[in-house]
Amino acid sequence: MPAGTIELLADFVRDHYWFASATENESTDTDAYDPRNFNLTSSGTYAKDGVITYNFDGDMTGDWDHNIEVVLQMYGEILGVEFQEVSRANADLRFFEDQDRGGWGNTYNISGGIYEYGEVHLDPYRETKPGSNYWFLLHEIGHSLGLGHSMPQNGSTVWDGFENWD
To answer: Helix H segments across 25-132?
Structure first.
């Protein structure tokens, strides 16, 4: 089996993970198979006009809000997108504390690959694990921005070309 490349990995995370995951789960939702993107233009379905808003559901314990803002700033610089905190409940990215679930991120209301909003659920006890929060937030916020895993790890199947990265 040939080794994978960084280009194949990026392509899979951005575009093919969702198709592979929906196929493995035998999803009947046709939108589940599409890559996921915010519409950053000023018109069309769920238009964001270049700004992705975010909010925190209630009081976040510890330094979650600061750490989230640091990660959003990094994503903003890389993607060329502005992240703006808002107080309204219908923000584009929504952050919640969700005890006993470990933490996760996902996208919602998908239509033709464009989604309305993303959520990140955080376990407040995870914060006590030194050094893990930054990577954890990068990972889960990445899901809320439409990125998948680097390989189809939600299931047991490994697809050809995605199990050996150089």
So the answer is: 64-79
| Global pTM exceeds 0.90 | no
| Cα–Cα dist 101/156, whole Å | 21
CA distance 141 to 104: 9
Residues 88/104, Cβ–Cβ less than 8 Å: no
The residue extents of the domains of the chain are 36-144
Tokens 């198709």 — which residue?
19
- Crossing angle of helices 64-79 and 133-144, rounded to 10°: 60
CB within 8 A of 163, min separation 6: which ones? 1, 4, 151
Q: For the segment 95-133, what is each residue's pLDDT rounded down to a tens digit? A: 988 776 677 888 888 888 888 999 998 877 765 555 667
Task: Give the tens place of pLDDT for each residue, 23-65.
Answer: 777 777 766 667 778 888 899 989 899 999 999 876 677 677 8
Task: Answer for the pair 146, 115: CB distance below 8 angstroms, yes or no.
Answer: yes
Top CATH class, 36-144: alpha beta
Between CA 103 and CA 121 the distance in angstroms is 5
8 Å CB contact between 112 and 48: no
